[in-house]
Structure formats: C-alpha cells, structure tokens
C-alpha cells in the first residue's frame, strides 16, 4: 500500500539485481516508496507517463532507449517529471548529455547509499544534484573564465537571474511563467538575455554556471 505522503519513486535499470537493491534501500526509508520499475528505456517511458512518480532513478545505459534519450522523451511529454541519473560512467560527456536532456541530477553507482537518498530528496524538492566526485569535473575549466572578457556582461537583472536560476534547476518555461506570473514569451526573453550576457550556449552550460555560483546548493 502506497501512502499519499511518501515520495513516489520509479526505477529504470536493465539489471534486476540492481533494481532489487535500490528498491530495498528506498523502501526502507519512511518517506519514500518504489511505485514501479522497468528494465529498458521504452518500457520506462510508458510506465512513468502512466504512474507519474515524483522521481525517476534512471540508469544511463539501457536497451531500447538510453537514459538520456528516455529522459528527453519524458521531459517533452511531462515537464514536471524529475529524473535522477544513476550510472557507472564518470565521463563529462555523459553528464553534459544528461543535463541537456533534462536530468535534474547525476549520481554514480559507487556512491554511498545515503548519498543516493539525499540526491533523491534534493531532486524531488526541485533542486539539482551532482555527484560530488563529478561536480568538480563539470565545473572544471569553467571557473577560470566562465564568460567573456567584459565583466559587465555578467550583470543580470533580478528577473533574468530568477529565470536563469529556475531554468538551471530544471523548470520548464511554462512552470517558470506560472511561478513568476509572466507570459511564456517573456520568460523566454529573460532566459535568452541571461544566456547572452553570460556567454552560455546550452542548458548544460547554464547548470555548470549555476553550480559555480552556488545557486543550486539548497538541494
């Protein structure tokens, strides 16, 4: 029986043993419960859109659709779905791919169990979580000179900052518009201006900048 006050978690991993271990860990938490699972990306998309869990713990490497492909499809179908990627890969390329697809977090499979639980809570609360081991790699090389030579280009208006922060945290333009009581077109304008001022070209770039600035620490 699933209690209404528990976080509803969905597991997508092609290894049954891994799913069973994750299920045992998550169900042992008083505030969480696994509501479904899938062994491939296609099945995951179908079930997630039906069950609408709070967080999807998604393996990166799966048959049918990869984790990034499944994440992109889910975010297109339902922008409120929060995806936490779980993988053995420690390559920056995988992180960029997942963040660009709309994942709200990234945890290594070798992480401690309590770290995964913390990441799930952070993502469910609307934050972005990057595995501490990988965060420095994501930000690495970006801290030295995150934008152009002119520091004036970094000065965002309050609205531009609000929109940029929420975009980095994984919210869609529609969600941001509702929260800030703006039109979607206005949100898009603020987002475009912020990206231009910061010299950024993608959501993955914006997330890296947000990590550097400490915008996502409340997760």
UniProtKB/TrEMBL annotation:
The modification 4-aspartylphosphate is found at residue 59. One of its GO terms (biological process) is phosphorelay signal transduction system. Keywords: DNA-binding, Phosphoprotein, Transcription, Transcription regulation. Residues 149-214 form the HTH luxR-type domain. One of its GO terms (molecular function) is DNA binding. The keyword Repressor does not apply. This is Response regulator transcription factor. Residues 8-124 form the Response regulatory domain. PANTHER family: NITRATE_NITRITE RESPONSE REGULATOR PROTEIN NARP (PTHR43214:SF41), TWO-COMPONENT RESPONSE REGULATOR (PTHR43214).
